[in-house]
Amino acid sequence: MANLPGSRNISRLKKWQRLFVNRSLNMGNIKAIGFDMDHTLVVYNREAFEALAFRETLKKFIASGYPEELATLAFDPNLLIRGLLVDMDRGNVLKVDGHKYVKVAYHGHVRLAKDVRRSVYNIESFKAGSLLSVDTFFSLSEVQLFTEIVDYMARNPNKIQKSYREVYDDLRRFIDQSHADGSIKTHVLAHPEKFVRKDKYLALTLKQQIEAGKSLFLLTNSSWEYTNALMTYILGDESDEFTDWRQYFEYILVSSGKPGFFTGSQPFYEIQTKTGTVKPLAGPLAERSIYQGGNAKLFQQLTGIRGDEILFVGDHIYGDIIRSKHSVNWRTLLVIEELGTELVKLEALKRALSDIRSKMEEREIADEDLQVLHSKLRWQERLMAHSQANGEVKKAEYIGKEREKLATKSGRLATRLEKLDFEIKTMTEARAARVHPVWGELMKVGLERSRFADQVADYACLYTSAVSNLRFYSPFKRFSSVHDMLAHDF
Fold first, then answer.
1. What's the Cα-to-Cα distance from 5 to each of 233, 248, 332, 416, 476, rounded to whole Å?
2. Contact of 271 with 278, CB cutoff 8 Å
3. How much is the pLDDT for 310?
4. Which of 9, 82, 95, 361 could form a disulfide with 104 if both were Cys (CB 3.0 to 4.6 A apart)?
């Protein structure tokens, strides 16, 4: 048996190994745990995989008549992060805070000036739903290719006689073709060791949950052939007890069509793995059999497991987390892979954050002092006017001299505030650049929460950097949230 973890060692965990809690969750009440596959159980070598998707899609652009010069465009694994928004009509990529305020915007490789960004997006509220949300790693190569073509169009006017929206529509069509014709998956299946990273603790993690009495199921949008190949690669020889990866899961659901799986009513079909034929489901779901399609409500009816008895683990904030919570009230665990490296960087930047906060406290005190001076100046202005009206010349002259002294002091303080503002801005930008040179922290814009962070807080009961971090916690642990507190509670 796998050793069941206890809670006494959790305090010793490094931050990137932890599970973070937004909503209290008693794992003792969880009967079933569902797992997405891509970027959840199957962790890709992102640089290799996204570069492949970039190249294969770019080939289709050129084959369709786009300039052959585009062949020189290169994939940059460090250009984009998740949580961004794409304005497909203007060709801009945006980073937005939790209040829908656009803080950073790029057109190709050119950063938009503050006044331009403000006039386009921030004077009037824009509808985030009308923009493309970069929710999953699969979107990164897509959006980077769009960004590179936008940049090419800006540098080479009239060479591409299409709008940005038309370019993006072509991009979506070519990506769909790449998936349909096997341009991408054929390479992955031929050399999974190049494109997929094995997690040596994944098998142990799954076994711990099984031994604790949890029912595990796989729910993926990938086809059976692709799923079987990759799951065999990551789990097929990881345990003497489980000789086939399917033994870890009671139910295996492929080609599920998420997020439609959570909202639709499509039926289940059983896949005959020996013949490759598909037939409609004619009874209950059989353990270890392979099914495609289906829907969440029917799945609950057929298994007898419902709503908050199910924890679903996935990487897609919308397709996995928001829809499963909204539609069928499943509990949710969001895998944010990039936190694994980002939290290490943030730990090293603790001193920088402390320095910024100290500087902000200094600025707050200086600002309060300045407001007091402004109040005194306004009061003395009224006194001087009153003295002048009453013919009290000497008194008025005295007050005037005192006002000059206060005005000089106020000017010096205002200059100090400008300097503090500049220092805080410079320090904040420098710290953010050490996390990511273009976009900064995933969960922050400057020092404020990003739109992505707000979505995580609202919809993910738990979040972590890897599925295997579950192994550090008891399968019966009560996770308690502190996020129900308001500002006055601290």
1. 27, 19, 21, 54, 10
2. yes
3. 98
4. 95
